[in-house]
Structure formats: structure tokens, C-alpha cells
Amino acid sequence: MTDYTAYGVGDPVADTKAPDGPIAERWDRRRFEAKLVNPANRRKHTVIVVGTGLAGGAAGATLAEQGYRVVQFCYQDSPRRAHSIAAQGGINAAKNYRNDGDSVHRLFYDTVKGGDFRARESNVHRLAQISLQIIDQCVAQGVPFAREYGGLLDTRSFGGVQVSRTFYARGQTGQQLLLGAYQALSRQIDAGTVEMHPRTEMLDLVVVDGRARGVVARDLVTGRVDTYFADAVVLASGGYGNVFYLSTNAKNSNATAVWRAHRRGALFANPCFTQIHPTCIPRSGDHQSKLTLMSESLRNDGRIWVPVAKGDTRPPNEIPEDERDYYLERMYPSFGNLVPRDIASRAAKNVCDEGRGVGPGGQGVYLDFADAIRRMGRAAVDAKYGNLFEMYERITAEDPYQVPMRIYPAIHYTMGGLWVDYDLQTTVPGLFAIGEANFSDHGANRLGASALMQGLADGYFVLPATINDYLARHPHDEVLADHPAAVAVVAEVTARLDRLLAVDGDRTPDSFHRELGELLWDECGMARNEAGLRKALGRIPELREEFWRRVKVPGTGAELNQSLEKANRIVDYLELAELTCLDALHRTESCGGHFREESQTPDGEAARRDELFSYTAAWEFTGTGRPPVLHKEDLVFEHVHPTQRSYT
Amino acid sequence: MKFTLRVWRQRDAAAAGAMTTYEVDGVSADMSFLEMLDHLNERLILSGDTPVAFDHDCREGICGACGVVINGQAHGPERTTACQLHMRHFRDGDTIDVEPWRAEAFPVVRDLVVDRSAFDRVIASGGYVSVPTGSAPEAHATPVPKAAADLAFDHAACIGCGACVAACPNGSAMLFTAAKVVHLNALPQGAPERESRVLDMVDTMDAQGFGGCTNTGECATACPKGIPLSAIGTLNREYLRATVKGRGNRD
What we know:
Radius of gyration of chain B: 20 Å
Oligomer: heterodimer
Number of helices of chain B: 8
CATH architecture of the domain at 277-410 in chain A: Alpha-Beta Complex
Mean pLDDT of chain B: 97
CATH architecture of the largest domain in chain B: Orthogonal Bundle
Helix content of chain A: 25-40%
Strand order of the largest sheet of chain A: 1-21-20-12-18
Order of helices and strands of chain B: EEHEEEEEHHHHHHH
Mean pLDDT of chain A: 95
Structural class of chain B: alpha+beta
CATH class of the largest domain in chain B: Mainly Alpha
Number of helices of chain A: 17
Radius of gyration of chain A: 24 Å
Number of strands of chain A: 21
Largest interface: A-B, 77 and 78 residues
Shape of chain A: globular
Largest sheet of chain A: 5 strands, mixed
Distance between the termini of chain B: 61 Å
Strand content of chain A: 5-15%
Distance between the termini of chain A: 46 Å
Low-confidence stretches of chain A: none
CATH topology of the domain at 277-410 in chain A: Flavocytochrome C3, Chain A, domain 1
CATH superfamily of the largest domain in chain B: Alpha-helical ferredoxin
CATH class of the domain at 277-410 in chain A: Alpha Beta
Helix content of chain B: 25-40%
């Protein structure tokens, strides 16, 4: 019998690009040491960018401004719709406009600590440095950030930090930053420097002589599969949260681009580091297609509780005070309802597992504003949270002013992703990964308002500076469309689509995706243990086999076929899910978003095991259903010394 | 709940389309309109039929991908996007008509999916501030009065869904174009390109096949983000001003 939990251990992997020396000077040094491409020669280089979110949109616009020829793809009908648009809260920057003790070093420190000491110091420090320029750039683009009456930028504080460094545009910061990048990209499209392919999905990577030289992509309207060549390929295709089916990601966000790159040789790092957001609207039934997040600022004034007694089905207003359990306030008296995301999420799961959850299926806890309304008055609550209350009421038909909100955690962000070095280059030369698609900056847990910061840092400032070095050092001949490597990839992509259409079974693609997602959520969600992970690792190959036997994909490949798009993405989820569980099984410590029940402190908190696991796990693909090979990148902490988190 | 759906089916841009009737049973009041369509599609796949194609992505009302005409109204009876419209706003047993956006500038791609790339071309012709990465001054170098920042935000909230065009009897994109012009022209950062922006965007808008504005106001009523009708007045004023003043610094 096949052992689905087996894996090999290969040579360690190291980041050879980060300079040594004082950490604050490393980025300057790297930019100086990197070779440049003469401005007159840049137009001879083509760079492919996959995705148009904050990272991809910013990178495409910037590379084109610098004179490169950019060929860019997105599966949406317009580059303006990438899922960065849904980010609500804000973007961090160490501007210290509040004079409250913030600095580049403090943002660096907070991010390394918040990531539970599983991120690379050099990368995080650079991120904190660049945060300053991002705000300047976005303001100059006309991003309408919130302002004070004096005309200066407003900031607010966000979970896990003690300074006010989060810039925001009402509850739509992601939308406004993305539109800024989209508009900059549009200017280049109009100038003819970016060749934009909307409604076109990358389905595979073309590697020629060991270097990334292009992609195979499908026109989603005509079904045509084409090869596009370039001197370098940049993946900005986002995270893989949709492997869980129900997540806060957009429905079509998917892992195909990164997974196909992984299959072509790019190591995949820390797939088990997934972030669960505690304040989402619970599912209302089996028809649920996605989950909606509400800003966690709600926890500033809302009180979280469940009934003391199991199976108490009385309406919340009829449950007296002494029969309510404000469990976060009880367990964490000093932080109360404001404990970090992972702790709040896990506590909600525990009370629901005990049978004390509320709402449909008992999968929810109350977030109650009754005290806040009494204390602050309805008008003040409305001014602070009105838009969130309205959104909640629209979805649930319940008025949070009258009855407590119900919330439940949901998958929200993936810290893991393609392994990259300091230059954001993967282990396939010429293939770069930026934004959520890479693993680089957030360790095992991402702080609020840091995803937008990283996406824009990578896209506007890091990649455009580092890709020069690669292009200057590796002049390329043109690859012709009939190159055997390209022809083989096209044949493989086409064969897979044909095979999906040919099965003609009796189950819909979505039914498999739901089943996989439920399995992953149960066994590799908020809390993981060895037995559960082994169970999932046994079940996933069976599900994969069943998928190829029973899936039903209607229509043909030569037309707009949304069922075919879905099914093709599920093929990759069925492999990625397996690696995620294996990574979670091998990491027998708890850290950040990864909680192993076997690794707890006596009072039930996450116990990190630095002596064994202070490394990034970078996995090498060896074949579907075959044991992958683990390459470790040791993490060295010279500036921030690992400590155990405590919130009691 | 149970509904009779009459859905526009059209194989591709070149084919003729027609309304097709489906009975949908087992609908929950908590389903969004798009989840109801998912529910229908799951059944169509299993019965060997072709599922209904429709655009959607974030399903939380911000990406602007979704949009269908429901019983003659863009995004349906509530002032929101189709993904945030729930079936509890319909009566059990209702007959519901579902059609794609209808506008000359938005050709049908398939079923309920239309091509809105004309919007992208309007933005590309001037809906930006020319500021290459790295060239920005310090963010606090230019204070922006709060009123101007708020006005800019109110108009920047547009999600580019196209409901305004679908609701307009002329298929006009004035509200969409106006939203971007007001957003950028309200800010000091947008001032250097103030005239060229409005002239180029309006030219492109006309060239893309959008109709003229007759001040019907349906656009602002259909807008899920509440872009005010006054934006169109500002657009007209900006256009007139730019015509008189000339293209400004750009030429």
C-alpha cells in the first residue's frame, strides 16, 4: 500500500541574493550590485506578467514605464477586477506621521514577530523600508485616502501593534489602491507598451534550457490555447485560499499558475501556513458559495459570547447575563476580545465543537453590540460601524442593532506560496513570484493591513529593481513557437482539457471542490492533528481518482465554458491540498496560523519549537501522488530575537 | 422557494439568442441571486444541458464583475449588485426574467456575459494621473482639503459594473466617465491633466459607441455604489471649460 505521508529530504535551499552587512543597508547594496539593462535595450526585452492585482498591476505598469515590453494576462474581463479590490482595512507604512514612536525598524520588528518568527529578516526589513514610498506613490496617483481637516493623511491602528500606521480609504482601501495601479497600467496599455490579455488564463509554464521562457494560456472566450514567449515570467496570481472551497477569496481566484510552475520545478514553501479570519459571516446553508469578511475592527467594541449551556436554542435576547459565556474575556482577561486572529478563531472553533455554537448548524458565535450601544449611544456606533452593520443585514436579514451578529472564522489569506530568493526569483531561473503568490514576508501569520503593503512593494519597487539583474546577465535568443519544449507543454495542456471533457461522469465539478474543501477545513483548518492529517492524506488520492472517473464537464473546449475552467482548476487543487496536509503533518510544532494540537503549552496555547522548526519548508515536486522532497531554508534571526507569544 | 426563470440564452456573439424558461425548485431565501443561478446550473449540468454563463467573481459587491438585468432592472429590485441581492426579496412562485446588459457598446459574449472592454479604453485614454513609479513627492507635500478628498472618494467608489449603461435608454456611459473625471479633477494631483483628461475621455467614450445623455437619470438610480447624478453636470462643466481653455499643459 502506498504511504501517502512519505517524503524525501533533499539539500538545503539558501537565499544567495541577499547581501550581508547591516540590515538597513542591504537593499541599497543589492540595488547597486545588480546589473542594469541599458534604457535603449529594454524595449528588446519582453516580460510576461500573470495577474493584475496590486502586485501584478503595479509591476506591469512600472516595467512598461521603464521601457520593457510587457505582455500581461488576467482571467477577469478587465484588469480592474483582481481580488485585491476586496481588501477593506488599510495599508501599513512606517511614516510616523503621528509621532508615536513608529519607525522602519519597528514595522520590521512587528512583522517578524507577528509572523511568529518564520519569515526572512532581510526581506521583511526591505518591506518596511519601502512602505514609505508606497504611500507617496499612491497619493500622487490620486488615491483618495482618508484625510484630517487640516488636509493631511489620517491613520488608524490595527490588530497586534501599538502605533497608528495604517492608511485607509474608508472600508475600501484595496479597491482604491488597485484602481490606482490599474489606471497606471491602463496608461501603458494606451501607450502600447503593455499588451493586455483579459479573459485569458495561464495554464502552464514553458521552460526552455532550464529557464522560464513563456506561458501557455487559454483564451476563455474562444477556447484557443496559445503559447506566449518572453525573457522572464512574473507570477502575480494571488494566493490559494480557494483550495478550501469556502473562503473570502473571489470565486475564480485559483492556484493553477503557481501549481503548474511548481510542477515545472519551482519549490513551494510553507503551504500549511494559511490564515483564518475570525470575523466572517457564517454560512447560511449548503448553497453557500463563498464567505464574506467583516473588518475585525468590530472586535474593538463588540463582545463575543456563546451560551453557557450546550444546545441552548433560545433567542439571544432571552438568554440572561449569567447564562452567557464571554469566553475571550474569561480566558484572556488582559486582551479580551482583541486577541490576535488565530487565537480568536481557534477559541470560536472550540466552543462550537463543544456544542455551544449558535445559528444554523451551530457554526457561529455572537458578536454583541448591546453594551456598546448603551455606552456610546446608537449614533456613535452607527458612525463607526454603520457600513458593516448594513452589509451584515443585507446578507443575513438580521438587524445588528436589535440582535447580536453571528460570526465564524473563514480562510482568508495564504502566507505560503512559491519559494523566492531576495530578488523574488523562484528556483526556476527567469521565473519570479510576487505578492500573495510568493511566501516571502509574512512567516506563519500575516498582520492586518500588511498584504496591500507587500503586494505594492513587490510590484512597484522590488521586482522592477531586481529583474534588471536577471535580464542583464542572461541575454536570450528568441524562442520559436515550434520549439519542442513549447509544443510539448501545449500538447499536455490540451490533452488535460480534452480528458476532462471526455469523462462525462455523474458529478459536477463543484461537488468535488466542496468535498475537498470540507475535508481540508475539517482536518487542516484551524487546528490540525496527526490522525486528522493522515486521514486527509489517505482520502485526497481517492477523491482525485474519483474525480477523473466521475466528473461531468458539459460543452466543448472551443467556447466560453465556465465548467471546464472550474474543473481544470480543481485538478490542481487536488494536488495542492495533498502537499498542504503533508506540510502540516511534517511540522509538528504550532506557529502562527498553523496550530498542531500535539504542540501546546500547559494552558492550551500554541507552542513553537524553534530548535526543530526554525526553517522554511520548500517542497520539490516529483510526480502526482509521489513523495515530494523537502528542502529546508534555515532562518537566522540577528535582529529580532524569537520569543513565545503571550496574550493572557 | 420555487421560481420560474426566463433566461436569455445565446451561444456566442454571432448567434441569435432567445429567452428560455426553467423551473427552479429548492431555493433558499438566504441564497444570493447568483447562488440561485449556481443551483440551477448544477441541475443543468447533471441533466446534460448547458449551464448558464454569467460573470461574477468577488461576490461581495466590490469587483464589479457581475451584473444582469432582472425583471427589467439592472441588478434587480434592490440598490446593490446581483451578488448581494438575496432571494428573500422575491415572492415564492415568482416568474423572473434574467437578461444580459443591453447596450450597443457592450456586445453579448455568451448568455448573460457581455464585453465591457469599452470601459477600459475610456480609462486608458485619460483616467489616470501620469506619475511614473518612483517619481512621487512626499505624501504630505500637498495637503488636500478634506472636502475635496471626500468628494474624490465618493466618485472613486465606482466599480465599473456597467449598470449605468444598461439602465440608460441611450446606452450612455456618461455616469461612468463622469465618476472618474470628478474623482481625479477634484484633487490637486489631477490638476495638471485636468483639461486633456476630460477631452480625451469624452472623445473615447463617444468613439466606443456609447449613446448620448438625455438627463434621464436612470443611471444614478441603478448605480449600486450611489454615484450621484450631479457628476454628469460636473463632467459637462469640465468639458466646456476644457474646450474653452484648451488642452492645458499636455500639448
